[in-house]
Amino acid sequence: MIALKGITKRFGEHTVLDGIDLSLERGEIIVVIGPSGTGKSTLLRCVNFLERPDAGQLTVGDLSVDAARATSDDILGLRRRTAFVFQNYALFAHKTALENIAERMIVVEGLSKAEAHARAREILERIGLADKADAYPAALSGGQQQRIGIGRAMAAKAEVILFDEPTSALDPEWVEEVLALMKQLAAEQQTMIVVTHEMQFAREVADQVVFMDGGRIVEQAPPSELFTHPRDERTRSFLRKVLAGNAPSDA
Amino acid sequence: MQALNLDYMVGLVPVLLGYLPLTLGMAAAGMVCALMLSCLLAVVRVSRLPVLDQAAQLFISFFRGTPLLVQLFLFYYGLPQFLSFLVSINGVTATIMGLTLHFSAYMAESIRAAITGIDRSQTEAAQSIGMTNAQTMRRIILPQATRVATPTLMNYFIDMIKSTSLAFTLGVTELMGATQKEAASSFLYFEAFLVVAVIYWIIVEALSWCQKRLEKRLNRAYQR
Ligand SMILES: Nc1ncnc2c1ncn2[C@@H]1O[C@H](COP(=O)(O)OP(=O)(O)O)[C@@H](O)[C@H]1O
Ligand SMILES: [Mg+2]
């Protein structure tokens, strides 16, 4: 189980997250939507302390951490129970696809290189990139890089995978293959929090959709409800804008 | 103008090559020690460790700010005056020490620049999979920084090989010292120094060739 309570984050004077509460059951998928600059990335980054929250309580699996008093062991513990998929993939540039996926198993789990590589190969099979095992990131397309990024997250067997706009940096031609992989994970009951502008994906896959604005959760509901009967005017206006831009895929 | 004494020059080559192992040995030892020290200095500087960072800055400033020859004299002739255990320091050891300290100051700055130039997302990706700061540095940042810094470090190595010639001022008979002696006994100064110049030149060219091959290898991961 994942629970966030009262997560607050300021950058100087600017309060970017203003007391966020959110919880997920195992296997649940939450999609977070909202205007840019509203704190969605910061929220995900706070869950694994890529940003340090100023206040709040974080629970991931059996670990519960008071953000204001988090020790370095707490932070490492949270990071080892979560996995992150970055907008710009952030693959290790000097490592092959296989090594990118195996890295965590070697360094964090202490598996032998042979064992880690064998398991990484299984993951490459699952993400359909077995033939790219020895390719370096620079030689892969954006879509392939992001699938490796997701494979690296899968290798963590994390309580939750955090996706920060995983398709936003991709050329349109690669978006579908990445979304397809995420749907595959959803079908395997992987717990995830996904920040995205892909409304069709949210409709199909999310258990809950969260609309954020100005550092707060404005509205949270299952997609069938949030997309058809948004309660708050800010949600309505955001959806009007986004869906107008997305018209073809929603037709 | 009289003609070059070619026979003398050809005969001198094998004599001087006998001193090549000492020259290359001093450079290799200096380079290995300088690499270790400069990595340490760079990591101290990048992590901004209090006190140690200031100490590293002072060290770097001094060894970059004074001539290598002055530093060598300071170690070889100056220090034993105060540190009695150094009385027995020989010219070779003093040279290796001087090269190490002098070049590590320069190399630390290149390594530091290479480290800080690695994209922040690499660190975040490593942290996100639960790597500690030390693991991140060792497995992700330093290998990538190595690639960036290698061409510069190779240039320092080349420079270091040439700088070993200063050891002759501490009475070490290495390549340069041997040439000096040979020239003084034959009076064929031009011939002798021309031969040694060409020997240094060939070594440096050979190294430049290795440098290009090494860079190609290191860039393998970055080819599209
Ligand atoms: N490291 C930072 N320092 C200062 N301000 C930041 C930093 N990161 C994000 N911000 C600010 O926080 C706000 C929320 O950013 P972000 O979480 O990236 O929004 P979103 O992902 O919803 O677009 C923005 O105003 C952004 O400028
Ligand atoms: Mg964002």
Q: What can you tell me about this protein's structure?
A:
The complex is a heterodimer of chains A (251) and B (224). With 251 residues, chain A is of the alpha/beta class. Chain A folds into two domains: 1-20 and 30-61 and 159-246, 3-Layer(aba) Sandwich (Rossmann fold), CATH 3.40.50; 89-158, no CATH class. Chain A contains ten helices and ten strands. In chain A, 49% of the residues are buried. The model of chain A is unreliable at 247-251 (pLDDT under 50). Chain B has helices at 6-17, 20-46, 52-65, 68-78, 91-117, 120-128, 133-163, 175-186, 189-218. Classes of the chains: A alpha/beta (251), B mainly alpha (224). The interface between A and B is medium-sized, with 27 and 22 residues. The complex binds adenosine-5'-diphosphate (ADP) and magnesium ion (MG). The site of adenosine-5'-diphosphate has 10 residues of chain A, from helix 1. Chain A: It is found in: Cell inner membrane. Chain A: One of its GO terms (cellular component) is plasma membrane. Chain A: Belongs to the ABC transporter superfamily.
